[in-house]
Request: fold
Amino acid sequence: MFAAVDLGSNSFRLHIGKYEDGGIRVIKSARDPIRLAAGLDKNGNLTEQACKTAIDSLTRFRAILRDYSLNAVRVVATNTLRVARNSHELLPELERAIGYPVEIISGEEEGRLIYMGVAGVLAEPEEERMVIDIGGGSTEVVRGLGGHIRHVESFGIGTVNQSLAFFPDGAITAAAFERAIISARSHVEDAVHLFSFSEGINVYGSSGTMRAIADTIERNGMGDGRISLSSLDDLMQRLIDFGHVSQIELDGMKPDRAGVIMGGLAVLIGFMQEFGIEFVTPVEAGLRMGVMWDLQLRATQSDRRELSVEDFARRFHVDAARAHSVAETALGFFQVLKPATDSYARYLYWGALLHETGLVVSPTGYHKHSAYMIANADLPGFTTREQKLMSTLILGQKGNLKKISEMLADVDFAKAVLALRLAVMFMHSHITLDPDKVKVKLKSKIDLEIRRDYIKEHPSIGFWFQKEQEWWAGIGVDFGVKVLA
Reply:
């Protein structure tokens, strides 16, 4: 049983689902329309009241989660927490409230998860499709074939920010809609060519806004009853006739959505016009369903992150033999060091596979280039926090340790860094790790024992050990080397 919590710009939502009969069945849902994006002040900070509302919401969600026996929980935050300047201050409080790590995911990762959710529900492996998800603060557009994603883009335009920008006082006019639609088109016009759109592609709308618009059109007999430009134009004219949000009376349009529906409608019309889309089919799936599918795949060893690492290494021409040698040796040392948990093992392995990606930039300081690339790349399946963790490991693979000294307070992380550094040294000295000939411990200091024949056969390792002693001494850690007969 899995839980997905989505900290969106418009609403916080929760899904609890169970994998059965090849699909995921949702057994519990919750929604809290907190309008987080509206809580951004003129300086781009979330107000104190907005932060309190968010914390209170997650406290309520935590009470729901307690009632279920869950195999995994994933909490993801989207556009508003991506752009809020003080999100780093709010994040620890949100984590305390919900009781789980909160991951601020990139727009591209959000799009990938949305597509996974839609693909899992549609189960059409050969269907050419586009998925559009209009959220509170951003809109994701994804092109794919069956379960395979071909292209994903995230645009910083959504229901809340568009409504605040063009309908700030609740007044609904034709001129405001015209400006809002043109604004939406301007966001996407340079990206249309990336999607190779054609008439044979089915287009799906996965957001709550899309489903609300579709429901309103159907219940009120607008246009042809589908999400088409003619139906959307009919809905827009009805809203203009009402003249103000407070006067809207339409079946299917809930009062809590009325304030942001104009922004979402303008985005949808603008995108359909720019892409030349005739119809959009709403689908009851999206980010939360995608998160649960991702958790299910991870539980069955089909981890998307493995493929991301392979693709990234291939794209930047990493020497596969060297990379795998370092990765296997690093894991070997990590096991010898006996960490309290294996929580860093996967990131150590993946970081080792990517430790030389920076060579594509320059052999000088390649570890710094590698660290920067991993921290800032689009790596599907990875969260920003996970990429930062691997980036720090990679940065610490050689040289001065002061640059990562704060992270080394975590003993298991320090063991992962030491394991990677030793693996890189062994690779440069052309040594294959033999656990019977090398022993290493890290407690208050580092104690390494090595057989004399290793030193004789690979004399450069002695030089590396001497440098390593200096680097660890720089942060106040003794590194003792004992040569055994």
